[in-house]
Amino acid sequence: MNSFLGIWEEFVSIATFGNNLDKMILSKVKVEFSKDEVRIIANDEFTKSWIENNYLDRIKSLYNYYEMKVTVILNKKDDSGNTEGKETSKEDIEKDQKIGKKGNSTSSLETKPDVKVLESQKGDNTTNKNLNPRYTFSNFVVGPSNEFSYHAAQNVARIPGGMYNPLFIYGGVGLGKTHLLQAIAHEVISKNKLKKVMYITSEQFINDFFKAMNDKNLHSFRIKYREADVLLIDDVQFFKSSMKQVMEELFHTFNKLFHDRKQMVFSSDRSPKELSEFSDRMRSRFESGLTVFIDKPDFETRLKIVEAKFKNEGIEAPEDVINFIANNINDNVRSLESAVLKVIAYSSFSKKNIELNIVKTLLSELAGANENSKLELKSGENEIIVNYTIDEIIDVVTNYYGISKNEVLNNLRQDKFILARNLIIYIAKRITNMSFSQIGELLNRNHSTVLRAYEKMESLLKRDLLLKEQLKEILTLLKSKKNVA
């Protein structure tokens, strides 16, 4: 069988698993292969459009590994009734098989640029460039949300194959999982250049397996993966139960490395228990070591991240700009870094200093392109930052709760006074340009007290629906006081 046809059939089997309609449509198309092209021949315009809209990107990604162009064409007949697309000839098959055999050696698999293999014992450190040089422990900003994961990763890098094997790191998108995996790789290599360290994504593992299978070269694939000293696989949630051969290979690779006391590190967007695509036996193996969670960074950590990013780029940003970015971009680390780079790029291109009014405009545009990153209060109500004073905020909050200004500003510990005081701090930070230090000065509180109050309100508003409604009403009163629509 044509080696590339085997890849196509495997793709159809996996992509249409549980979907009989898709399977029926894809199984009826004709596929032709040449040295550098895959031609998918559809019998009608509907099928052509359907493949282009639903599957073409994935098919291109699959064959891009072999540097093959993918096109979808209509099956047009000539006057004699013959179709335009010819049958795959014996010569074509033999040609494709020769192409497949070119990668039969272990080295050809290992030097494929999208598979990040680091084998220092071969005396070739050029593959170290496949790791992001910025993703080191020294560049990782530590806070309460990621502290446990950070120290676990450091321990693994110090003692690979030790107590925490495997290490399983999970959490949302853009929170630093990839950073930690690559930091482990960098650290191990820096301490022992003879270690065979391999960092890959789940997609790379899958592609590498299918290539080895179609090249009839699984032996080299197994040597490559099962002889690693440290194996780090990113985003394991993309493995699918329908990929039975891949799953089996991963299972046996795990067993071999574990038996040899070689370190394994995995990352995912969910915990091992939630990885429904995996068998019970594989989930239990993921859980057999140490499982750690990375959460979204709190405000103080976001401040550190923004400061560090500006510093790394050699930029000294004003405090109000740093505060504003940390306040308003709160979904993940990647978004924070993207916001900082946008500000730096604008300043560089426009030859203008970084100022708060410019940053507000820039980040409003950034938020407009991402529904999840809107500059908004935690209550969910969009707020226009205007020139409120702390006294105006205090007046509205105290009137709303029926208490006096003195009761709020004094150290009275009843719940209603504490709530009002914390809300004043929270609102002041969200809708004015004041720093925590400035707010603390006006309320006779120190910086750390104000910061704790803000974070407490931030946490409460995530789960207290009544408090959210009260905040909305207070904001409405503030707006009416300023005549802001």
Helical content (DSSP H or I, runs of 4+): 40-55%
CATH fold description of the largest domain: Rossmann fold
Biggest sheet layout: 6 strands, mixed
Tell me which CATH architecture of the largest domain applies here: 3-Layer(aba) Sandwich
Strand order of the largest sheet: 4-6-7-8-5-9
Structural overview:
- The structure is a single chain.
- With 485 residues, the chain is an alpha/beta fold.
- The protein has four domains: 1-74, DnaA, N-terminal domain (GMP Synthetase, Chain A, domain 3), CATH 3.30.300; 137-293, Rossmann fold, CATH 3.40.50; 299-364, Helicase, Ruva Protein, domain 3 (Orthogonal Bundle); 390-483, Chromosomal Replication Initiator Protein Dnaa, Chain: A (Orthogonal Bundle).
- Helix content is 54%, strand content 9%.
- It has helices at residues 3-15, 20-28, 45-54, 56-64, 90-101, 106-110, 147-158, 177-191, 202-214, 218-226, 244-259, 280-286, 299-312, 319-328, 333-350, 356-368, 390-401, 405-409, 415-431, 436-442, 447-463, 465-482; strands at residues 30-33, 37-42, 69-74, 117-119, 167-171, 196-201, 230-234, 263-268, 290-294.
- The strands form two sheets. A six-stranded mixed β-sheet has the order 4-6-7-8-5-9, sandwiched between helices. A three-stranded mixed β-sheet has the order 1-2-3.
- Strand 7, helix 11 and strand 8 form a beta-alpha-beta unit.
- Helix 14 packs parallel to helix 16 (356-368), helix 19 packs across helix 21 (447-463) and helix 20 (436-442) crosses helix 21.
- The longest helix has 18 residues, at 333-350.
- The model is unreliable at 78-127 and 367-386 (pLDDT under 50).
